[in-house]
Amino acid sequence: MNRSLLFLTVLVIATCGLVYELIAGTLASYLIGDSVTQFSTAIGVYLSALGLGAYLSRFIERAVARRFVEIELAVAFVGGISAPLLFLCFSFTGGFRVALYLVVIAIGTLVGLEIPLLLRILKDLVRFKDLVSQVLTFDYAGALVASLLFPLILVPKLGLVRTSLLFGLVNGAVGLWSTWLLRPALGEVQRLRLKAVGVCALLFVGFVMGERLTWFYEDQLYADDVVMAKSSPYQRIVVTRGRRGFSLFLNGHLQFASVDEYRYHEALVHPAMVYAPSHRHVLILGGGDGLAAREVLRYPDVETITLVDLDDAVTTLGTTWDELAEQNGHSLTNRKLKIVNTDAMQFLAEGDGKYDVVVVDFPDPNNFSLGKLYTTRFYRLLKRRLAPGGTVVIQSTSPLFARQTYWCVVQTLEAAGFWTRPYHALVPSFGEWGYVLAAPEPRSRVHPLPPGLRFLDDETLEGMTKFPPDMSRVPAEVNRLNNQVLVHYFEEEWRKWD
Amino acid sequence: MGLTGGLTRRELVAAFLGAAVANASCRKERPRAQVPGALVDRAVETGHRLRPGSGTAPLPRAKEIQNVEVLIAGGGVAGLSAAWRLRGAGVKDLLLLELDEALGGTARSGKNAVSAFPWGAHYLPAPLQDRGPAAKLLHEMGAITGTRDDGTPEIAEQLLVCEPDERLFYRGAWYPGLYLRAGASADDLAQLHRFERRMVALSALRDGRGRKVFAVPLEEGSDDAEWTALDRISMAEWLEREGFTSPRLRWYVDYACRDDYGAPAERISAWAGLWYFCARRDGEKENAGFLTWPEGNGRLVRQLSSSLLPKQHRTNVLVHTLEPKDGGWLAHAWDAQKKAPLGFFARQVVFAGPRFVAGYVVAPWRTARPGFLDAFVYGPWAVANVTLNQLPLGRGYPICWDNVFYESRSLGYVVATHQREVATDVGPTVLTWYYPLDGADVRAERQRLLQADYNAWEALVMADLRAAHPGVDDLVTRIEVMRWGHAMIRPVPGFVWGGARTKAQASIGGSLHFAHSDLGGLALFEEANWHGVRAAEQVLAALGRSVSSWLG
Ligand SMILES: Cc1cc2nc3c(=O)[nH]c(=O)nc-3n(C[C@H](O)[C@H](O)[C@H](O)COP(=O)(O)OP(=O)(O)OC[C@H]3O[C@@H](n4cnc5c(N)ncnc54)[C@H](O)[C@@H]3O)c2cc1C
Questions:
Q1: What is the CATH number of domain B46-108+296-374+492-542?
Q2: What is the pTM for the complete model shown?
Q3: Which chain A residues are Cβ-neighbours of B163 within 8 angstroms?
Q4: Are strands B378-388 and B429-436 parallel, antiparallel or unpaired?
């Protein structure tokens, strides 16, 4: 038996063990949020599971080498699939925390079993003093390797899922290799090798095929890590997390970034609220994340908010995912707010309730379906649903990146008989962003801004209507159902930037 | 398995839709369960009822005769337009009889849990001018909302075909528009440009009396020999003569003729072909676009019918004999539901069925058949309404209102849910698939239409869709097929200006008047509507009511 080679296994085991632990911790903080608590809880659980494993090792009396290899294969398997498994649990089931701790405990216990068993295998070959010092040296060296590799190379290059599969694979390979190293102590090895090959093959397939799965694809598509992805009948919903917080994407288009969404939403909501003579009954079209509703709720005299969002997957996310619910101030569960999951155009055409303020917060017009929501027809339907004095605001893409698109929205509103007050604000995640305040007749400001805003004050509010020359008005056609010029403008203009 | 006339599935598809569809589609076909569905027409049955000596006993006659001031036989657009005009003049003693179970004729529509859908006509081009009966009807519906800068009527936005309107499938991908630009050579594009400029010029032409050469309805246009001479050659000959040789342009013109008239350019008169491209514009001035609804022109049928009281119309009633009597007409009819004869005496009658039926029904014509009847040629069509639980996926340009396959003999499909006021394209839908049997021998084509049973049409529809939409097999939940034996008048060379049409418009005895789109020579809403109103005004004149005309 080659001793130094055996110590190499210690290095690998230690590295893999720590990598799994880091993956679990990172995942927990990505997915549940609140990184410090999550990270330390996950690691605490892991450490105690290691202890549990060490304790359990005493109950293994016979065929120690064989058990050791088997445990190593089990670690390879559980550790290898841990990240994909946890992601899937998070996206498709409600029991993410339970799954997380089960996985952490399983890996910790198995890794905890390994070192004592290895010590027992080696104790007849090496003097005790050397044994302890060498095993611990390799153990700590492994930990160092892992802690350097993990943030610097693995996560940025491979992402969490592939890192976990890769280390499972390495772990499995070492398991297979140790059937040769420990050959004399093992007895019959054929079946053991078969198991090892099976585990490796499985993880290898996962690693290679995985690239084809949307998950991995997305993991690489987004700059930050994908912490959740869901497909609803209407769209693909993806949440990513980076150093500066989390972001929500719908069909690959950024909806908001938690760091600076306050700028976007304050600029979206407050001008309409302070220009509308009354804002007792508010309608929000789109905006299922609840962030616009949060701003609306700053006015105590708001009596009802009707939030119309097509996709209940989005509104559910805003209600049940703690971190988003916290970000939106639990607006979606406020008793003043009613969620209606339906098509906004249908909602306007078929209902008859009237509203004082309407906040129109749709995704950009990047396809013909969305384009319908920016047509004269849509704005006429909208006008029918305004109470006397009613005021609306429309998010209208970027007047800088998509200048003609932006002014086309203004032009279309005017063609539908609206007075308009175009304005813009800087939202770092988006760039220069445009909105249009509109009403059936001219409005002027009647209410003060509510306290507690981070971005808007009176001066900013006034300044937003100034358009520097590179964003100033350009001629555009009116967007109608039967020409959808807006979609064409949008596509042309964004193509230059992508 | 033999499907029709002992053909295999592949042979059937190749015979009806062409080799390209057969290759693309039968290769991809896996064993699959047949889509449930049915033939919904009663084409064979009705034909037998009408033609004596075709095996069935002559229909019995009622003993009891009801009196009615005005009787209208036929509840298609022409008959309904006549009724609408008469109601507009306050006529109350009026009865419209329709042999089918629903009103509308070839503009009928259906409805299922997913959507309403057309069984035939599905759009109306916006009028170029704000006058005439069609514009009046649109005003009544609130569809005309004003006047555009160029003086043409403005149409309520939601009634015009929504963008994206048309796309073309060619070799694996969808492209925008109905002219195949992808891969077109410089010469192709130059010819297209020349053709378009030519149509703009022709559309602005006026004759010596200041009439537009190509007008809607064509009755309002020029009948000067200089232009009507174009009726004697085919559209294909005209293209040839003018040096339009580009295969893509020819495909485009051919498609237009097949789509509007049910036959390719070589079997359609050049005058009719040019009319299609020139009637809806006046030089640079264009109409506002196409009006359409989920139920197609069924919406217009509903508007026309709304003028009638329930007791003023009956369905499932076939008028089989019209006999002159005491300055009026005795009408013998058959109630197909009650299986009972009905008899009426009417002072005035509008026969609003097609000429080939008039030849059997108008009793004096049975013995002295007028020669002009034989000039009327009708092409058969099949229409399938296909229900899917999801819009089909395809490569390239997104799904449109009108979706056409470049390499298929079908005309592709129209999406019934396209005009819904919703902004999502998720969920179930109904596609209306059109297939004109466009061969020269219309009798043989009718046989081909009727021999093909549900199995055959199902196989054809699915093969056609599968070629462009892999995976569509899993989406289709039901197919219903309507076979129109005499779907529409075919403006073959020499017909529109050959004289038969004008002769056939003449009333008999000042009391039997005729209305139908075939009298205009082009199967279009505006023609049916115009002739219906024209016949109704003849009735009003005969009844001695002075009214101002809706025609001008
Ligand atoms: C597949 C298809 C697609 C079309 N698409 C379009 C389109 O998109 N746009 C367009 O403008 N036009 C279209 N058309 C043309 C359409 O035919 C005309 O627009 C118009 O509806 C014709 O009306 P009509 O009254 O002249 O004739 P029909 O529709 O033929 O109506 C005649 C009616 O009379 C009834 N009838 C006949 N004989 C008797 C009798 N003896 N007793 C009682 N009732 C009788 C028939 O059952 C029928 O209902 C299409 C036609 C077809 C077949």
A1: 3.50.50.60
A2: 0.81
A3: 368, 371, 481-484, 487
A4: antiparallel
B4-45+378-489 belongs to CATH 3.90.660 = yes
Q: Rounded distance, CA B388 to CA B37, Å?
A: 12
**Among the listed residues B546, B73, B22, the one whose alpha carbon sits nearest the alpha carbon of residue B320:** B73
- Measure the CA–CA gap between A208 and A158, rounded to whole angstroms: 12
Q: Which A positions 453-482 lie with beta carbon below 8 A of chain B? A: 480-482
- The structural domains of chain A, ordered by start, are 3-219 (1.20.1250.20), 223-256 (2.30.140.10), 262-497 (3.40.50.150)
Closest residue of chain B to A373, computed from CA coordinates: B423
Where are the domains positioned within chain B? 4-45+378-489, 46-108+296-374+492-542, 187-288
pLDDT tens, position by position, for chain B (552 residues)?
445 556 788 888 988 999 899 888 877 677 788 999 999 998 667 666 776 555 556 788 999 999 999 999 999 999 999 999 999 999 999 999 999 999 999 999 999 999 999 999 999 999 999 999 999 999 999 999 999 999 999 999 999 999 999 999 999 899 999 999 999 999 999 999 999 999 999 999 999 999 999 999 999 999 999 999 999 999 999 999 999 999 999 999 999 999 999 999 999 999 999 999 999 999 999 999 999 999 999 999 999 999 999 999 999 999 999 999 999 999 999 999 999 999 999 999 999 999 999 999 999 999 999 999 999 999 999 999 999 999 998 888 999 999 999 999 999 999 999 999 888 878 899 999 999 999 999 999 999 999 999 999 999 999 999 999 988 999 999 999 999 999 999 999 999 999 999 999 999 999 999 999 999 999 999 999 999 999 999 999 999 998 899 998
The answer to whether residue A361 is catalytic is yes
For A370, half-sphere exposure in the C-beta direction (CA atoms, 13 angstrom radius) is 22
User: Which residue of the set A309, A356, A361, A364 is catalytic?
Assistant: A361
Judge contact between B352 and B134, C-beta under 8 A: no
Q: How far is CA A36 from CA A89, A142, B71, in A?
A: 22, 24, 87
Q: Give the pair of three-digit tokens for residue A443.
A: 């409005």
